[in-house]
Amino acid sequence: MPSGSALARLITAGISEAVGPVIELGPGTGVFTRALLARGVRPEQLALIETNPHFARSLTHRHPQSHVLSMDATRLGHIQPLFGNDRAGAIVSGLPLLSMPALHVSAIVQGAFERQLRADGAFYQFTYGPRCPLPRSLLERLGLKAQRVGSTLFNLPPASVYRVTRRESP
User: Fold this and answer.
1) What are the phi and psi torsion angles at 110 (to 5°)?
2) What is the C-alpha separation between 55 and 26, in angstroms, rounded?
3) I want to staple 6 with a disulfide (CB 3.0 to 4.6 A). Which of 41, 48, 77, 154 is the partner?
4) Mean pLDDT (the chain, rounded)
5) Is the pTM of this model over 0.70?
6) Are the beta carbons of 113 and 81 closer than 8 angstroms?
7) Alpha helices in 90-160 (DSSP H)
8) Pseudo-torsion of CA 106, 111, 117, 123, nearest 10°?
């Protein structure tokens, strides 16, 4: 079921044009994409990583100025930074991390922080579960911390959003 507009507003609440480039993982139908653009993120400063070829083609058609990559997010650590020397200030994830194998989750998060996000960048993830969808052991191993941003009952099902950053953020 696609995420609702209340969740899109919550997960993008801390993001504006000033954050710089933004990467969205698993944009699907584009509800978070539309919220990011409404918050002032410039289309050319937005990279959309979508594994489903149908969704990727649709996103390319609807957002021609954005960078749409039809690829698996587990490859984030194996590709060049998407914005060159200007690393992303935020990653917004619509991926269902709780239903993914632990090795995939680890590859996505590690690739995001080691290759794509700048030092003060943040990774935003939502969950339908009662706690952070990233295992504590993964956060500790990568030197990360997770903070619950909030929750919304106006999403079906209700969801919470977490902001993940480096423990030693500048």
Assistant:
1) -65, -45
2) 9
3) 154
4) 94
5) yes
6) no
7) 102-111, 136-142
8) -20
